[in-house]
Amino acid sequence: MNSTDVITSNPTRVTPQRLFIVRYTLEVPIYVIGLFLNSYVAYMFLRNDRNRFRESRLNRIITYLVGACLLWSAVSCFRYFEWLVDGGMSTTLNTIYALLAPICLVSILGLNLMLAMERFFVMRQRSDIDTKTDDSVLPNNELQATVWIWSTAVYYITVIVAIITLYISTFLHTRKILRMYRRTQPSSAKDVVQNQALFQIERKVLFYSVCFGLVVIVCYLPEILMNGCIIVRIIDPHTQGDLIEVWKCVANVFVACDSVITPLLVLFVGPKDQRHDEENL
């Protein structure tokens, strides 16, 4: 491989058979489920109490996160079905996908970072380029492709490390507070009620931190590791295409799962009555 070659997970620009099978038997059904699930969660979240959306920054971030997952599911479904019909030969549509795909992923990771920061500061402070592309991922221009790969890798790694660090810090701080509450001997019935309320809030935040942090790690780690190995040339995509194909299948499915897992977390794990929690604080 020459030093001027663009490092990519698919140098042949041809979709391998296994990647094609995984795409339409696993990825597409996941994105379809994500499309309906995110629509339902966004509708229910906004319908129940619109005042909470306006008053609570946390609720706004969660709603925007669900919206980003909804857009990512819709773009992925339309892209894969369009590729199935015409083989992805439309330059115009591929350019649109190339623009929307990074916007969706950057939005999802950025909003996850905002959510992690919100939980961190609430518990700490008690307050509330236009270019052609053949695969809708990498530009055809060698220099642009190289810049895109490196900038994307640095962004993903930085954001994911920041999200995980914030959640770990929140976890450690909350665990410390929980232990302090257990050791505290209340002097009155009012103190007992207040300590119990604070204990429940801290415990929920601890649970949120663990759940949302694990989703980021599990869903994006395979993709990060694969791109990292390609960038540092531990794996050569020109000679180890079979390994890259299998790895890409796994990574794509894990990334797709985020569009389903995130709304499920919001639906079953997310804050049920944020206003009540803030009043207790």
UniProtKB/TrEMBL annotation:
It comes from the Eukaryota. The chain crosses the membrane at residues 28-46, 58-81, 96-117, 153-172, 205-225. It comes from Rhizoclosmatium globosum. This is G-protein coupled receptors family 1 profile domain-containing protein. Keywords: Membrane, Transmembrane, Transmembrane helix.
